[in-house]
Specification:
The chain is an alpha/beta fold and about 400 residues long. Helix content is about 30%, strand content about 25%. Helix 1 (about 10-20) runs parallel beside helix 9 (about 200-210).
Length: about 400
Protein backbone atom coordinates (compact mmCIF):
# COMPACT_ATOMS: atom_id res chain seq x y z
CA UNK A 1 0.00 0.00 0.00
CA UNK A 2 1.25 3.46 -0.95
CA UNK A 3 -0.11 6.31 1.17
CA UNK A 4 -0.33 9.64 -0.64
CA UNK A 5 -0.88 12.75 1.46
CA UNK A 6 -2.79 15.38 -0.52
CA UNK A 7 -5.42 15.08 -3.26
CA UNK A 8 -4.16 17.92 -5.41
CA UNK A 9 -3.10 17.51 -9.03
CA UNK A 10 0.22 15.88 -8.07
CA UNK A 11 -1.25 13.36 -5.64
CA UNK A 12 -4.07 12.35 -7.99
CA UNK A 13 -1.62 11.98 -10.88
CA UNK A 14 0.70 9.81 -8.80
CA UNK A 15 -2.18 7.55 -7.77
CA UNK A 16 -3.36 7.24 -11.38
CA UNK A 17 0.04 6.09 -12.66
CA UNK A 18 0.44 3.70 -9.72
CA UNK A 19 -2.95 2.20 -10.54
CA UNK A 20 -1.83 1.73 -14.15
CA UNK A 21 0.96 -0.52 -12.81
CA UNK A 22 -1.32 -2.43 -10.46
CA UNK A 23 -0.13 -0.71 -7.28
CA UNK A 24 -2.77 0.16 -4.70
CA UNK A 25 -2.73 3.59 -3.08
CA UNK A 26 -4.73 5.56 -0.53
CA UNK A 27 -4.93 9.36 -0.79
CA UNK A 28 -5.49 11.23 2.46
CA UNK A 29 -6.95 14.72 1.95
CA UNK A 30 -7.52 17.18 4.79
CA UNK A 31 -10.16 19.27 2.98
CA UNK A 32 -13.65 18.42 1.72
CA UNK A 33 -12.70 18.01 -1.94
CA UNK A 34 -9.99 17.12 -4.42
CA UNK A 35 -7.85 19.58 -6.33
CA UNK A 36 -5.77 21.39 -3.72
CA UNK A 37 -5.49 24.93 -5.08
CA UNK A 38 -7.44 23.90 -8.19
CA UNK A 39 -10.98 24.25 -6.86
CA UNK A 40 -14.26 25.81 -8.01
CA UNK A 41 -17.13 27.03 -5.83
CA UNK A 42 -20.74 27.39 -6.94
CA UNK A 43 -22.03 30.69 -5.56
CA UNK A 44 -25.40 32.22 -6.42
CA UNK A 45 -25.38 30.39 -9.75
CA UNK A 46 -21.82 31.48 -10.65
CA UNK A 47 -18.77 29.23 -10.97
CA UNK A 48 -15.95 30.83 -8.98
CA UNK A 49 -12.52 29.33 -9.42
CA UNK A 50 -10.42 29.89 -6.30
CA UNK A 51 -8.20 32.46 -7.93
CA UNK A 52 -7.98 33.11 -11.68
CA UNK A 53 -6.62 29.92 -13.26
CA UNK A 54 -6.11 28.63 -16.77
CA UNK A 55 -4.75 25.52 -18.50
CA UNK A 56 -2.27 25.63 -21.38
CA UNK A 57 -3.18 22.88 -23.84
CA UNK A 58 0.47 22.62 -24.95
CA UNK A 59 1.52 21.25 -21.57
CA UNK A 60 2.95 17.79 -22.44
CA UNK A 61 1.90 16.17 -19.15
CA UNK A 62 -1.66 17.42 -19.55
CA UNK A 63 -1.75 16.07 -23.12
CA UNK A 64 -0.55 12.72 -21.85
CA UNK A 65 -3.00 12.52 -18.95
CA UNK A 66 -6.19 14.49 -19.53
CA UNK A 67 -9.15 13.95 -21.84
CA UNK A 68 -9.51 17.42 -23.34
CA UNK A 69 -12.73 16.56 -25.16
CA UNK A 70 -14.48 15.51 -21.95
CA UNK A 71 -13.34 18.69 -20.21
CA UNK A 72 -15.08 20.70 -22.98
CA UNK A 73 -12.30 23.26 -23.01
CA UNK A 74 -13.11 26.85 -23.92
CA UNK A 75 -10.31 29.03 -25.31
CA UNK A 76 -9.34 32.64 -24.79
CA UNK A 77 -8.31 34.56 -27.87
CA UNK A 78 -4.52 34.50 -28.11
CA UNK A 79 -3.18 37.81 -26.85
CA UNK A 80 -4.06 40.54 -24.38
CA UNK A 81 -5.78 43.89 -24.11
CA UNK A 82 -3.48 46.48 -22.50
CA UNK A 83 -4.68 49.64 -20.79
CA UNK A 84 -2.88 52.85 -21.65
CA UNK A 85 -2.12 54.39 -18.25
CA UNK A 86 -1.69 57.86 -19.80
CA UNK A 87 -4.95 57.85 -21.75
CA UNK A 88 -8.27 56.20 -21.04
CA UNK A 89 -7.71 53.79 -23.92
CA UNK A 90 -6.78 50.20 -24.66
CA UNK A 91 -4.44 48.47 -27.11
CA UNK A 92 -4.54 44.89 -28.37
CA UNK A 93 -1.42 42.73 -28.50
CA UNK A 94 -2.46 39.60 -30.36
CA UNK A 95 -0.67 36.44 -31.43
CA UNK A 96 -0.21 37.08 -35.18
CA UNK A 97 -0.26 33.36 -35.95
CA UNK A 98 -3.67 32.77 -34.34
CA UNK A 99 -5.30 36.21 -34.64
CA UNK A 100 -4.23 37.43 -38.11
CA UNK A 101 -7.02 40.03 -38.21
CA UNK A 102 -5.33 41.80 -35.28
CA UNK A 103 -1.87 42.08 -36.85
CA UNK A 104 -2.21 45.70 -37.92
CA UNK A 105 -3.69 46.90 -34.63
CA UNK A 106 -0.94 45.07 -32.74
CA UNK A 107 1.83 46.57 -34.90
CA UNK A 108 0.47 50.10 -34.58
CA UNK A 109 -0.29 49.97 -30.85
CA UNK A 110 1.55 52.23 -28.40
CA UNK A 111 2.90 49.17 -26.59
CA UNK A 112 6.59 48.91 -27.41
CA UNK A 113 8.35 49.75 -30.65
CA UNK A 114 8.22 47.97 -33.99
CA UNK A 115 11.61 46.49 -33.11
CA UNK A 116 10.11 45.13 -29.86
CA UNK A 117 7.34 43.42 -31.80
CA UNK A 118 9.84 41.85 -34.18
CA UNK A 119 11.79 40.62 -31.15
CA UNK A 120 8.57 39.01 -29.83
CA UNK A 121 8.25 37.11 -33.14
CA UNK A 122 11.86 35.96 -32.83
CA UNK A 123 11.25 34.88 -29.23
CA UNK A 124 8.20 32.88 -30.33
CA UNK A 125 10.30 30.92 -32.83
CA UNK A 126 13.12 30.40 -30.30
CA UNK A 127 10.85 29.08 -27.55
CA UNK A 128 8.40 27.12 -29.70
CA UNK A 129 8.34 23.48 -28.55
CA UNK A 130 10.91 24.20 -25.83
CA UNK A 131 11.38 21.22 -23.51
CA UNK A 132 12.11 20.90 -19.77
CA UNK A 133 15.82 20.73 -20.57
CA UNK A 134 15.67 24.53 -20.63
CA UNK A 135 15.74 24.42 -16.82
CA UNK A 136 19.32 23.18 -16.98
CA UNK A 137 20.50 26.52 -18.42
CA UNK A 138 22.36 29.08 -16.32
CA UNK A 139 19.96 30.94 -14.05
CA UNK A 140 19.18 34.62 -14.54
CA UNK A 141 15.97 36.49 -13.76
CA UNK A 142 13.27 37.10 -16.35
CA UNK A 143 13.76 40.88 -16.14
CA UNK A 144 17.49 40.50 -16.80
CA UNK A 145 16.82 38.14 -19.70
CA UNK A 146 14.34 40.54 -21.33
CA UNK A 147 16.75 43.46 -21.04
CA UNK A 148 19.61 41.40 -22.46
CA UNK A 149 17.32 40.35 -25.32
CA UNK A 150 16.95 44.02 -26.25
CA UNK A 151 13.37 44.77 -25.27
CA UNK A 152 12.71 48.42 -24.49
CA UNK A 153 11.67 49.58 -21.03
CA UNK A 154 8.29 50.53 -22.54
CA UNK A 155 7.70 46.99 -23.79
CA UNK A 156 8.74 45.49 -20.48
CA UNK A 157 6.59 47.86 -18.43
CA UNK A 158 3.55 47.81 -20.71
CA UNK A 159 3.43 44.13 -21.70
CA UNK A 160 5.85 41.74 -20.04
CA UNK A 161 5.47 42.95 -16.46
CA UNK A 162 1.63 43.00 -16.42
CA UNK A 163 1.23 39.78 -18.42
CA UNK A 164 3.90 37.60 -16.84
CA UNK A 165 3.55 39.33 -13.50
CA UNK A 166 0.07 37.82 -13.57
CA UNK A 167 1.46 34.41 -14.54
CA UNK A 168 4.23 34.40 -11.92
CA UNK A 169 2.18 36.33 -9.33
CA UNK A 170 5.04 38.74 -8.73
CA UNK A 171 5.47 42.14 -10.31
CA UNK A 172 9.26 42.52 -10.59
CA UNK A 173 9.87 39.51 -12.88
CA UNK A 174 12.48 38.09 -10.50
CA UNK A 175 11.26 34.62 -11.56
CA UNK A 176 13.80 32.42 -13.35
CA UNK A 177 14.18 33.19 -17.06
CA UNK A 178 14.27 29.45 -17.74
CA UNK A 179 10.69 29.17 -16.52
CA UNK A 180 9.75 32.26 -18.52
CA UNK A 181 11.09 30.72 -21.74
CA UNK A 182 9.28 27.46 -21.06
CA UNK A 183 5.94 29.06 -20.29
CA UNK A 184 6.24 31.67 -23.08
CA UNK A 185 6.61 28.90 -25.63
CA UNK A 186 3.62 26.98 -24.27
CA UNK A 187 1.39 30.05 -24.59
CA UNK A 188 2.12 30.19 -28.31
CA UNK A 189 2.21 26.44 -29.04
CA UNK A 190 -1.36 25.77 -27.92
CA UNK A 191 -4.45 27.43 -26.51
CA UNK A 192 -5.14 29.12 -23.19
CA UNK A 193 -8.31 27.47 -21.89
CA UNK A 194 -10.68 26.84 -19.02
CA UNK A 195 -13.00 23.82 -18.71
CA UNK A 196 -16.62 24.68 -19.54
CA UNK A 197 -17.76 23.93 -15.99
CA UNK A 198 -14.90 25.28 -13.90
CA UNK A 199 -11.22 24.56 -13.30
CA UNK A 200 -12.08 21.88 -10.70
CA UNK A 201 -13.20 19.64 -13.57
CA UNK A 202 -9.50 18.82 -14.05
CA UNK A 203 -8.92 17.14 -10.65
CA UNK A 204 -12.44 15.67 -10.79
CA UNK A 205 -11.51 13.97 -14.05
CA UNK A 206 -8.32 12.62 -12.48
CA UNK A 207 -10.24 11.24 -9.50
CA UNK A 208 -12.57 9.35 -11.84
CA UNK A 209 -9.53 7.52 -13.20
CA UNK A 210 -8.95 5.96 -9.77
CA UNK A 211 -10.67 3.10 -7.96
CA UNK A 212 -13.65 4.11 -5.84
CA UNK A 213 -12.45 4.63 -2.28
CA UNK A 214 -8.90 5.64 -3.24
CA UNK A 215 -9.46 9.18 -1.94
CA UNK A 216 -10.35 9.74 1.70
CA UNK A 217 -11.55 13.32 2.32
CA UNK A 218 -11.66 15.28 5.60
CA UNK A 219 -8.70 13.23 6.82
CA UNK A 220 -5.90 15.35 8.23
CA UNK A 221 -2.40 13.97 8.71
CA UNK A 222 -0.50 15.47 11.64
CA UNK A 223 2.78 13.55 11.62
CA UNK A 224 4.88 11.01 9.75
CA UNK A 225 7.35 8.68 11.47
CA UNK A 226 9.01 6.03 9.35
CA UNK A 227 6.28 3.96 7.69
CA UNK A 228 3.56 5.30 9.97
CA UNK A 229 1.15 8.12 9.25
CA UNK A 230 -0.61 9.69 12.24
CA UNK A 231 -4.07 11.19 11.72
CA UNK A 232 -5.71 14.03 13.62
CA UNK A 233 -8.42 11.66 14.89
CA UNK A 234 -5.79 9.50 16.61
CA UNK A 235 -5.65 6.71 14.02
CA UNK A 236 -2.38 5.39 12.66
CA UNK A 237 -1.88 4.01 9.16
CA UNK A 238 0.99 1.96 7.74
CA UNK A 239 2.35 2.45 4.24
CA UNK A 240 5.12 0.58 2.45
CA UNK A 241 5.80 3.87 0.69
CA UNK A 242 4.61 7.37 1.62
CA UNK A 243 4.25 10.25 -0.83
CA UNK A 244 4.04 13.89 0.27
CA UNK A 245 1.82 15.62 -2.29
CA UNK A 246 0.82 18.62 -0.18
CA UNK A 247 2.08 22.20 -0.51
CA UNK A 248 5.70 22.72 0.45
CA UNK A 249 5.08 24.24 3.87
CA UNK A 250 2.75 21.46 4.99
CA UNK A 251 5.04 18.76 3.63
CA UNK A 252 8.03 20.01 5.58
CA UNK A 253 5.93 20.47 8.71
CA UNK A 254 4.85 16.81 8.55
CA UNK A 255 8.44 15.58 8.55
CA UNK A 256 9.53 18.05 11.24
CA UNK A 257 11.59 20.30 8.99
CA UNK A 258 11.73 24.08 9.36
CA UNK A 259 10.66 25.48 6.01
CA UNK A 260 12.48 28.21 4.12
CA UNK A 261 10.14 28.10 1.14
CA UNK A 262 8.71 31.33 -0.25
CA UNK A 263 5.41 31.78 -2.01
CA UNK A 264 3.79 34.37 -4.27
CA UNK A 265 0.30 35.53 -3.35
CA UNK A 266 -2.77 36.67 -5.26
CA UNK A 267 -6.16 38.13 -4.47
CA UNK A 268 -9.05 37.42 -6.83
CA UNK A 269 -12.26 39.46 -6.57
CA UNK A 270 -15.41 38.43 -8.43
CA UNK A 271 -18.29 40.65 -9.53
CA UNK A 272 -21.66 40.03 -11.16
CA UNK A 273 -22.64 42.33 -14.04
CA UNK A 274 -25.56 42.57 -16.45
CA UNK A 275 -23.17 42.55 -19.38
CA UNK A 276 -19.48 42.14 -20.15
CA UNK A 277 -17.40 45.32 -20.46
CA UNK A 278 -15.03 43.67 -22.94
CA UNK A 279 -15.04 43.57 -26.73
CA UNK A 280 -12.30 40.93 -26.94
CA UNK A 281 -12.24 37.51 -25.31
CA UNK A 282 -8.82 38.25 -23.83
CA UNK A 283 -7.16 39.07 -20.55
CA UNK A 284 -6.97 42.80 -19.77
CA UNK A 285 -3.63 43.99 -18.39
CA UNK A 286 -3.00 47.08 -16.29
CA UNK A 287 0.66 48.22 -16.42
CA UNK A 288 0.08 50.31 -13.28
CA UNK A 289 0.98 47.67 -10.72
CA UNK A 290 0.43 50.13 -7.85
CA UNK A 291 -3.31 50.03 -8.52
CA UNK A 292 -5.90 47.62 -7.11
CA UNK A 293 -6.61 46.17 -10.57
CA UNK A 294 -3.71 44.25 -12.08
CA UNK A 295 -5.49 41.91 -14.47
CA UNK A 296 -9.14 41.58 -15.44
CA UNK A 297 -11.09 39.04 -17.43
CA UNK A 298 -14.65 37.87 -17.97
CA UNK A 299 -14.69 34.05 -17.61
CA UNK A 300 -18.33 33.88 -18.74
CA UNK A 301 -17.30 35.41 -22.09
CA UNK A 302 -15.12 32.33 -22.59
CA UNK A 303 -17.29 29.67 -20.90
CA UNK A 304 -20.94 30.82 -20.56
CA UNK A 305 -21.70 28.30 -17.76
CA UNK A 306 -19.58 30.41 -15.40
CA UNK A 307 -22.55 32.79 -15.01
CA UNK A 308 -26.36 32.45 -14.94
CA UNK A 309 -28.22 33.37 -18.13
CA UNK A 310 -28.33 37.13 -18.58
CA UNK A 311 -25.33 37.76 -16.28
CA UNK A 312 -21.57 38.13 -16.71
CA UNK A 313 -18.84 37.09 -14.27
CA UNK A 314 -16.01 39.62 -13.85
CA UNK A 315 -12.70 38.44 -12.36
CA UNK A 316 -10.16 40.96 -11.04
CA UNK A 317 -6.71 39.85 -9.85
CA UNK A 318 -4.28 41.73 -7.61
CA UNK A 319 -0.78 40.41 -6.91
CA UNK A 320 1.37 40.84 -3.80
CA UNK A 321 -1.40 42.37 -1.73
CA UNK A 322 -2.21 41.91 1.96
CA UNK A 323 -5.99 41.69 2.20
CA UNK A 324 -7.31 43.93 4.96
CA UNK A 325 -11.03 44.14 4.12
CA UNK A 326 -12.54 42.43 1.11
CA UNK A 327 -15.54 44.77 0.95
CA UNK A 328 -13.30 47.85 1.04
CA UNK A 329 -11.12 46.27 -1.66
CA UNK A 330 -14.20 45.62 -3.83
CA UNK A 331 -15.28 49.27 -3.45
CA UNK A 332 -11.82 50.49 -4.46
CA UNK A 333 -11.77 48.16 -7.46
CA UNK A 334 -15.18 49.39 -8.64
CA UNK A 335 -14.13 53.01 -8.15
CA UNK A 336 -11.04 52.41 -10.28
CA UNK A 337 -12.89 50.49 -13.00
CA UNK A 338 -15.47 53.24 -13.29
CA UNK A 339 -12.71 55.34 -14.86
CA UNK A 340 -12.16 52.49 -17.34
CA UNK A 341 -15.69 51.49 -18.33
CA UNK A 342 -17.99 54.23 -17.07
CA UNK A 343 -20.84 54.38 -14.59
CA UNK A 344 -22.18 50.93 -15.45
CA UNK A 345 -19.51 49.55 -13.11
CA UNK A 346 -21.37 51.14 -10.17
CA UNK A 347 -24.11 48.53 -10.75
CA UNK A 348 -21.76 45.57 -10.46
CA UNK A 349 -22.37 43.34 -7.44
CA UNK A 350 -19.47 42.03 -5.39
CA UNK A 351 -19.77 38.23 -5.17
CA UNK A 352 -16.72 36.93 -3.35
CA UNK A 353 -13.01 37.55 -2.78
CA UNK A 354 -10.32 34.88 -2.55
CA UNK A 355 -7.03 35.84 -0.90
CA UNK A 356 -4.44 33.10 -1.49
CA UNK A 357 -1.16 33.78 0.36
CA UNK A 358 0.51 30.60 -0.96
CA UNK A 359 -0.85 30.66 -4.51
CA UNK A 360 2.41 29.65 -6.22
CA UNK A 361 5.86 28.63 -5.01
CA UNK A 362 8.46 31.31 -5.65
CA UNK A 363 10.78 30.32 -8.49
CA UNK A 364 13.54 32.91 -8.55
CA UNK A 365 17.19 32.34 -9.35
CA UNK A 366 18.07 31.54 -5.71
CA UNK A 367 15.92 28.42 -5.65
CA UNK A 368 17.43 25.08 -4.63
CA UNK A 369 16.83 21.78 -6.35
CA UNK A 370 14.53 19.39 -4.52
CA UNK A 371 14.81 15.63 -4.73
CA UNK A 372 11.64 13.62 -5.36
CA UNK A 373 13.00 10.75 -3.26
CA UNK A 374 13.70 11.68 0.36
CA UNK A 375 14.38 8.14 1.63
CA UNK A 376 13.67 4.51 0.75
CA UNK A 377 10.18 5.07 2.17
CA UNK A 378 9.39 8.73 1.63
CA UNK A 379 8.82 10.64 -1.64
CA UNK A 380 7.51 14.09 -2.53
CA UNK A 381 5.80 15.55 -5.59
CA UNK A 382 4.10 18.78 -6.63
CA UNK A 383 5.03 22.06 -8.27
CA UNK A 384 6.77 23.14 -5.07
CA UNK A 385 9.61 20.71 -5.88
CA UNK A 386 9.83 21.67 -9.55
CA UNK A 387 8.42 24.81 -11.17
CA UNK A 388 5.06 26.52 -10.51
CA UNK A 389 2.50 25.00 -12.88
CA UNK A 390 0.00 22.19 -13.23
CA UNK A 391 2.37 20.60 -15.74
CA UNK A 392 5.05 20.32 -13.04
CA UNK A 393 2.53 18.89 -10.58
CA UNK A 394 1.57 16.18 -13.09
CA UNK A 395 5.18 15.54 -14.12
CA UNK A 396 6.44 15.06 -10.55
CA UNK A 397 3.43 12.89 -9.68
CA UNK A 398 4.20 10.64 -12.66
CA UNK A 399 7.93 10.49 -11.89
CA UNK A 400 7.36 9.50 -8.26
CA UNK A 401 4.97 6.76 -9.38
CA UNK A 402 7.62 5.49 -11.80
CA UNK A 403 10.23 5.46 -9.00
CA UNK A 404 7.90 3.42 -6.78
Amino acid sequence: MVIIIGAGIAGLTCAKYLKDRGIQSLILEASDGVGGRVRTDVYEGFLLDRGFQILLTAYPEAQRLLNYKSLDLKAFKSGAVIRDIHKNDFSVMANPFKEPSKIWSSLTSNVGTLADKLRVLRLIFETYNVQEEVFENQEISTIEYLRNYGFSDNMIQQFFKPFFGGVFLENELSTSANFFKYIFGKFYEGDTVIPANGIEQIPEQLMKMLYIGTVKLNTKVVKIEGNRVYLENGDRLYGEKIVLATDGLQAEKLIGKISEKKFNSTTCTYFSADRSPLKEKMLVLNPNRASMVHNLCVPSDIAPAYAPVGKSLISVSTQDFDLYDEHELAKNIKRELTTWYGKEVEEWQHLKTYHIPQALPNFDTSKTNNSLKLSDILYQCGDTVAYPSSNAAMATGRKVAEMI
